[in-house]
Design brief:
The complex is a heterodimer of chains A (314) and B (220).
Chain A (H helix, E strand, L loop, with lengths): L1 H32 L9 H11 L10 H20 L15 H21 L3 H32 L4 H10 L6 H17 L18 H4 L5 H26 L13 H25 L8 H22 L2
Helix pairs in contact in A: 1-3, 1-9, 1-10, 2-9, 3-4, 3-9, 4-5, 5-6, 5-7, 5-11, 7-9, 7-11, 9-10
Chain B lengths: L4 H22 L3 H26 L2 H29 L11 H25 L8 H17 L3 H23 L4 H29 L14
Helix pairs in contact in B: 1-2, 1-5, 2-3, 2-6, 3-7, 4-5, 5-6, 6-7
The chains are: A mainly alpha (314), B mainly alpha (220).
């Protein structure tokens, strides 16, 4: 049990510390793919340090909620990162929170973000919050459907059980997961504010969604939010790995597999980050009014995955 | 899941066929539609090859080769040339908007799966569970033919429907006799040639390939 708790804390800490590195890797890949010189991989860490050293500038009308929100968002993301198995399949926290609770954690973070954005009362914050909610209420059911497809195969909503069924039992190809994987990619671009739903680097008022919500933040608050964004990307990547590429995650109590698991995780994250950057380079951001269609397609694909599961895999 | 690996791969390819059918429904651009059609043909040829190898049915190999030649190489090539010649590369607006079409598509898939269940229970082949997917592909392609106004999109829907029928034949009875396959392949080829001639005629008369123009009667 102690080793389990140590592993749990270790995995969470790894996610918190490695998340900015993944962000830096994605940014570097994007720079390479568009023929620019890449910034250092450690750039996100430097930015976080710089922001933590800066003073916070608060609007006069800002309520305590505005100051509380960054901590709440960051806490939600740390909890979410703790639920997803990355290295070993032994998570003492996992009976307390399954895949559905994970969706709830993301939703809570998003609610704080949207409330804080509307709190100061600037036009941009409200606009960003409303757009975010438009995207989120379509993305959430699709994400749940993806989890349901995996849960139907594994007969459990607990992520370690799902990983156990996919990675450590007899190998089988599940066609329904092909649908779920496409739907998951579509949802994760929406949830992480990446192209084609949102552009993480833009500050153009016509197109920005996530950036519009955090315009009023500065100093350590902004640093926490940026860190939470990186952590969310990391958690989503880890989720994608756990659901669709789980080979390499060590089974419960299999300590010799741990070094291999670390190497595999690093490789898979590097590959995933590169693919994300590649897709972002190849695609253009779509119009906001095309986003419901995009996410509706994701939802339908996830439903289709479930149907195919009933047809082919029972 | 006690299926052999080739059959699992066939199931995966069947799912890919369905996925591509949905992608075709949601595709607005004609070039993308042709590319998707080529991919669908490739998935079909691969799955037929796998079934042929697994069940040692040599005539299926021949029809897989025929599919590859005709539906992956020849027909897409003809369509690409046609699109460039006729200059119809811009977006096409469907009759029903795309999210609604997709919703109808889901309903069709549920219908097809339910319909196929008793039939596939009767079939004795190892690939019988994919029959539902084959019927879903047929219905989805039919929906695409109904929901598009553009002539080329309708013809691609027709050919995708033929893909679905071919897949249904493979999964329910290990394919039709080779003579029948050859006949169908020739029919498809000739059909496309005839339709291409029609395209040029329609284009010449109406300056467009939009079939709305055909709804109006007029004296010349």
């Amino acid at each position: 049990m102690e080793s389990g708790i140590a592993l749990q804390l270790g995995q969470t800490l790894l996610a918190v510390l490695a998340a900015p590195l993944l962000m830096g890797w994605v940014n570097a890949c994007r720079a390479w793919l568009s023929n620019r010189r890449a910034p250092s991989l450690l750039m996100p860490y430097r930015q976080l340090r710089r922001l933590f050293h800066k003073d916070v500038v608060l609007a006069n009308q800002a309520s305590p909620l505005f100051r509380l929100a960054p901590y709440a968002i960051f806490a939600c993301m740390v909890l979410a990162a703790g639920i997803v198995p990355t290295l070993m399949n032994d998570l003492p926290f996992s009976p307390a929170a399954d895949a559905i609770a994970l969706v709830g954690l993301f939703a809570m973070a998003r609610m704080f973000q949207a409330l804080a954005a509307m709190d100061v009362g600037t036009a941009f914050g409200t606009l960003g919050a409303r757009r975010e909610m438009l995207v989120a209420f379509l993305a959430e059911p699709a994400l749940l459907m993806v989890f349901f497809t995996a849960s139907l195969i594994a007969r459990s909503t607990a992520l370690p059980t799902i990983v156990d069924v996919f990675a450590h039992q007899q190998f089988a190809i599940y066609p329904s997961l092909a649908f779920a994987a496409v739907a998951f990619w579509m949802v994760s671009t929406a949830e992480n504010a990446r192209i084609p739903v949102d552009n993480p680097t833009t500050h153009l008022e016509l197109t920005m969604i996530h950036e519009a919500m955090i315009l009023e933040y500065s100093g350590r608050h902004l640093a926490l939010i940026e860190w939470a964004v990186a952590l969310k990307l990391f958690t989503y990547s880890a989720l994608g790995i756990a659901l669709f590429l789980p080979w390499g995650i060590a089974p419960v109590g299999h300590w010799p597999g741990l070094p291999l698991a670390v190497v595999m995780l690093a490789l898979k994250l590097a590959l995933g980050g590169f693919v994300l950057a590649l897709l972002e380079t190849l695609n253009a951001k779509m119009r906001l009014f095309r986003v419901p269609e995009f996410l509706g397609t994701a939802f339908l694909l996830a439903v289709l995955g479930m149907l195919v599961h009933f047809l082919l895999e029972t | 899941m006690a299926l052999a690996l080739p059959l699992q791969l066939v199931n995966l390819l069947a799912a890919t066929l369905l996925l591509i059918a949905f992608a075709m429904l949601s595709q607005r651009r004609i070039i993308g539609l042709i590319t998707l059609f080529a991919w669908q043909g490739l998935a079909l040829a691969l799955s037929t090859t796998l079934v042929a190898v697994h069940t040692a049915q040599s005539h299926l190999l021949a029809s897989a080769g025929l599919t590859l030649l005709l539906k992956v190489i020849l027909l897409p090539w003809i369509f690409f040339r046609l699109v460039r010649r006729l200059n119809v590369e811009r977006d096409v607006e469907p009759v029903i908007n795309i999210p609604t079409t997709m919703l109808i598509g889901i309903v069709l898939v549920i219908f097809a799966f339910n319909l196929a269940q008793p039939i596939s229970a009767l079939a004795g082949t190892v690939t019988r569970s994919t029959l539902g997917i084959a019927m879903a592909v047929v219905l989805l392609s039919f929906l695409m033919m109904i929901s598009r106004r553009q002539a080329i999109a309708q013809v691609i829907g027709f050919l995708a429907m033929e893909n679905g029928l071919f897949f249904a034949a493979t999964s329910a009875t290990y394919g039709m006799p080779l003579v029948v396959e050859l006949g169908i392949a020739l029919d498809v080829l000739v059909g496309v040639f005839v339709l291409v001639i029609f395209f040029f005629q329609i284009r010449e008369t109406f300056e467009s390939l939009d079939l709305r123009h055909l709804e109006k009667l007029r004296e010349r």
